[in-house]
Amino acid sequence: MEAYRTQNRFLNAEIHQVTKIWRQVAEKEKVLLTKCAYLQAKNCQLESKYLAGLRRLQEAMGSEAGECSELLKQLTEEALQWEASEATADGVGLSPISEYDEYGFLTVPDYEVEDLKLLAKVQALEVRSHHLLAQEGRPLQERWATLGELTPSAELKQLLRAGVPREHRPRVWRWLVQLRVQHLQAPGHYQKLLTRCQTCEHPAARQIELDLHRTFPNNKHFTCPTSGFPDKLRRVLLAFSWHNPTIGYCQGLNRLAAIALLILDEEESAFWCLVAIVETIMPPDYYSKTLTASQVDQRVLQDLLSEKLPRLMAHLGQHHVDLSLVTFNWFLVVFVDSLISDIFLRIWDAFLYEGTKVVFRYALAIFKYNEEEILRLQDGLDIYQYLRFFTKTISNSRKLTSIAFADMNPFPMKQLRQLRAAHREQLEAELQELERFKAEYLESRASQGRAVAEGCAGEGEGEGEGEGEGEA
């Protein structure tokens, strides 16, 4: 027995030493991984600054001929083809920028204008830099890992605003959607809708089919010929058109459902996510034929921009720029296709929980983020051209989130409801006045038509009488 006790003490001491060594190695590995991510990020930042410098030189020199111009052209071409080399540090590979992100979106924006190709590469490097630096935020990852069962709380709100890690996002979104639609769900409802789709053709089926091929042309899951995502999307949209016959289908719903499919992967989950957005988060008639609520929100945004960013709004007013031509789509599809995927998915994390005020907060933040750039433009056409793509140049999600929820003096939901009510009343009055003018115009046209018809009939009778007298 004494021998066994001695042996046991020896083994326990050995286990304790091995455990201690293992913990030290694990800590060292963690430090090295963080250091590696930091070095990769710094490398991306340096490369980004180099490319940005080349772009500024391009703009400054223009089409000037000469040896410097040729050298600049050569350096630019090399920069566009250059990928980060495969290096190794402490056994950890420094990977190049991949063509697609984890959700299948193009990492480097596909700008049609040749002059913006260099800008696209700069953006890709900046996004990767911010992503690598975010890996240092281990406490956030650990908080999500230890969160357990989800319940509405102030802590959850803050976590959602900071962004849900990719591995937790499907579970979190399912819970957020369930929270919204639990009073609408019925067992087998989605399957019944699919059965109806097979037996009856919905009037919106043709438009849905056309929009399937326009959905995310820069996402490999929707462009690959062998992918099953387009078929899933078709079924989700047709099912929704039967579920909500008042709306049926509206352009923009395809992109909302497509994002839900990419994250949740299951058709039925994506269907209920679409229902949650259209029927519980957005105001009624947001996606109706008249888009009344959408028009109201554009007027509300104008008010908020005038309050928060008066200098910018005065500048845009001076050049007669109508922001709704740009922002209308932001609200309709919650920034999908406008921002890079890493940022708009963070917006959706908060949007599914807090609702439409998140969309307003980020719309304000986007203009604040780019305010100085817009103020430098002194021509209306230049401003419109910049507004076409400027949201894609935003790469720092932390900075944008900080502006949205801290720097812009957040407004309460009560203020948003009051503004919506006032603008809805005004818009409905304008629409009624428009309908009255339309009715008066149609009545005027009809009266003119009757008068012309009566005149023609009178002339015909007169000619008939004259012919009769002549024959007599």
TrEMBL record:
<dbReference type="GO" id="GO:0031267">
    <property type="term" value="F:small GTPase binding"/>
</dbReference>
<protein>
    <recommendedName>
        <fullName>TBC1 domain family member 2A</fullName>
    </recommendedName>
</protein>
<comment type="subunit">
    <text>Interacts with activated RAC1 and CDH1.</text>
</comment>
<dbReference type="InterPro" id="IPR035969">
    <property type="entry name" value="Rab-GAP_TBC_sf"/>
</dbReference>
<keyword id="KW-0175">Coiled coil</keyword>
<dbReference type="Pfam" id="PF00566">
    <property type="entry name" value="RabGAP-TBC"/>
</dbReference>
<dbReference type="InterPro" id="IPR050302">
    <property type="entry name" value="Rab_GAP_TBC_domain"/>
</dbReference>
<dbReference type="InterPro" id="IPR001849">
    <property type="entry name" value="PH_domain"/>
</dbReference>
<dbReference type="GO" id="GO:0031410">
    <property type="term" value="C:cytoplasmic vesicle"/>
</dbReference>
<dbReference type="Pfam" id="PF00169">
    <property type="entry name" value="PH"/>
</dbReference>
<dbReference type="InterPro" id="IPR000195">
    <property type="entry name" value="Rab-GAP-TBC_dom"/>
</dbReference>
<dbReference type="InterPro" id="IPR011993">
    <property type="entry name" value="PH-like_dom_sf"/>
</dbReference>
<dbReference type="GO" id="GO:0005096">
    <property type="term" value="F:GTPase activator activity"/>
</dbReference>
<dbReference type="GO" id="GO:0005829">
    <property type="term" value="C:cytosol"/>
</dbReference>
<keyword id="KW-0343">GTPase activation</keyword>
